[in-house]
Amino acid sequence: MKKLLLGAVLGIFAASANFASAQKCGGTYTVKGGDSLSAIADRHYKKANLWTAIHQANLSTIGKEPHSIRVGMKLSLTCIDGLPTGLEGGRIVSATPAAANVVQVTPGTAAVRKRINLLTGSDYAPFTDREGHNGGLLTEVVQNAMQKADPAEGFSIHWVNDWSAHLEPLLSNALLDLGFPWFQPDCASTPDAYRCANFYFSDPMFEMLALLFTAKDRPMAFNTDNDILGKTLCRPAGYYTHDMDKDGRNWVRDGKIKLIQPAQINKCFEMLLDGEVDAVALNEFTGRAKIKELNLAAKVDVIPRPLSIEGLHVVVHKSHPQAQDMLETINAGLRGIKDDGKYQAIIEDHMARIWADF
Fold first, then answer.
1. 235 shares a domain with 290
2. Is residue 233 part of a domain?
3. Pair (11, 116) in one structural domain
4. The domain containing residue 78 runs over which residues?
5. Is 73 in contact with 30 (CB distance < 8 Å)?
6. What's the rounded mean pLDDT across residues 94-99?
7. Contact residues for 122 (Cβ-Cβ < 8 A; gap 6+)
8. Measured between alpha carbons, how far is 350 from 334 in angstroms, rounded to an integer?
9. What's the pLDDT tens digit per position in 302-343?
10. Are 11 and 131 part of one and the same domain?
11. Does one domain contain both 333 and 294?
12. What DSSP character marks residue 191?
């Protein structure tokens, strides 16, 4: 197994807890008549708004529509803050874990051209975060996928916080080899879009919900796409908008909605509360984190129906001489950690930490 070199020193915590008092947390829940995701979340997590955590953990089972659960469906409930308990298949957790040992990882260098050099940035929590747990959810996924693939040349992960420089020139000129995490536009409808025309995409590393956040004093329905027509949405400048035009929606392209794009997320929520926009469109984690940061829980609602489900990928420029080989390396590693259970363990660990913060 090749030694992972990071572009900065990360603290990776060795799990060596002593179990002074242990219990089983999480497990499998079987849907019963009259259940909804919010009811299940309220019953087992004591927080109805954690329905999205259940949806996120069971996307492959439930599908895009959260109301599509049916009697007899088996749902995986992740352990969050020690809940739920009493379910089959739960994992043992420690009430008094011993202090974890910090393992220092040797810094890497982009000049080591014999290695596969991966590029990310440090300000996209919870996915990539240099100061966060194991470098963020997707940093840990990529790290483990590459270790599983075990390329003969080894690999390094490098941190450059100027995201605007990632695709062009760092990846386009093969100054670094692979970048993550990136959304894939609707390339079937817009093959000439910059990312579609110039980059190959890995299999999805993670799929997340894009949701609409509305003002509690001005509730808005989103039961079908027609409910959005004529509305004014806010999403910050630089964020993707392809979900608003894909699958024949063409909301932005054909002027069916008005899209406001201020420089900062805070401005979107300010405009929402001032009645200047009908909803803020963000990924679930960014939106909920901002609501907590701005103390808006009493003023802002989350619409349950997802606006879209977006995958995050590793990308490689099509001009890279080893583009296809490198893409297969990361895809093979992803398949490997999904098959051996490591991927699910990483997701559950990070999701528990994320939802505990909310």
1. yes
2. yes
3. yes
4. 22-94
5. yes
6. 40
7. 128, 129, 130, 131, 159, 161
8. 17
9. 988 889 888 999 999 999 999 999 999 999 999 999 999 999
10. yes
11. no
12. T
